[in-house]
Amino acid sequence: MRNSVTIFVFVFLALAVLPGGIQQARAQADPYPAMAPLDEYLMPKDAEIALARSAAPASVADGATVMVLERQGYTTAVQGTNGFLCYVERSWAHDTDHQEFWNPKMRAPNCFNATAASSITPIYLMKTRLVLAGKSKAEIAQAITAALDSGKLPALAPGAMCYMMSKEQYLNDQAHSWYPHVMLYSAGDVAKSWGANLPGSPVIAANDPQARVTIFMVVVHHWSDGTPGPPMEH
User: Fold this and answer.
1) Residue 25 reports pLDDT greater than 90
2) What's residue 28's pLDDT?
3) Is the dihedral of CA 113, 116, 119, 125 positive or negative?
4) Rg from Cα positions in the chain
5) CA–CA distance from 120 to each of 88, 139, 225 (Å)?
6) Mean local confidence (pLDDT), 6-28
7) How deeply is 75 buried, as exposed, middle or buried, from its count of CB atoms within 10 A (0-12, 13-18, 19+)?
8) Domain range spanning residue 127?
């Protein structure tokens, strides 16, 4: 299990990478130095709705609001009733330092509870608007920092969580679909206080300094459709 976890924490970390990984990633040749043509990030609407809903069990996703990416940004395709919000993240969900920030293959279905939808989603939607406006990674990072400092973007609310249980997810070129998992969010860089990512620790966490949150990842045994997830290596 530790080998799989170590690989995942290095190459994915939900939205970020650990500090030691940043230097190594920067030292490698950047496989995606610029944004691809927008068409490469887009999907047919019905396919994107289905993929977004696959992030969570049907008991959650069937009542969720669903957003899809169009040329002008994300729009609401389905109005939900249970407070959850599902959408497919593209590669700019990563920290701007991530070497796959422009990877057009990434499709990461997420289904956020109401708390995460109100305090995590606005960061991603702002990044999307900046990306579609043609801003550079440096400009995006500066804008997110300024918006958090000014309160234009909300601080993380307690109780934020997200399902990532889609069998069809493509997280990056190394981890691909990884494992079905649930994510819990905590404000600040708190992985150390949880003993996360240490040898023998079952706690997996990633600090996203741009969003100012730590993401804790809980691997589950089944994909959202009920089929077994891949066996964890020991």
Assistant:
1) no
2) 58
3) negative
4) 17
5) 14, 20, 25
6) 41
7) exposed
8) 2-219
> 71 vs 18, 42, 181, CA distance in Å?
32, 8, 30
Nearest residue to 22 via CA among 8, 11, 7, 36: 11
Q: Record the tokens describing residue 131, joined without a space.
A: 């990306």
**Across 49-76, average pLDDT:** 98
| Structural domain includes residue 230 | no
At which residue do the structure tokens 């691997």 appear?
Answer: 219
pLDDT, mean of residues 195-213? 94
Torsion, Cα of 147, 152, 155, 159 (10° steps): -130
Reduced to 3 states (helix: H, G, I; strand: E, B; else coil), residue 55 is: coil
pLDDT at 138 over 60: yes
Predicted local confidence at residue 17, as pLDDT: 38
188 lies in a domain? Answer: yes
Written as one letter, the residue type at 186 is S
Please state the rounded mean pLDDT for residues 80-90.
Answer: 98
- The upper half-sphere exposure of residue 61, i.e. CA atoms within 13 Å in the direction of its Cβ, equals 24
The tally of domains found in the chain comes to 1
CA 205, 208, 212, 215 torsion-angle sign: negative
The CA distances from residue 130 to 96, 140, 225, in Å, are 12, 6, 34
Task: Calculate mean pLDDT across residues 60-77.
Answer: 98
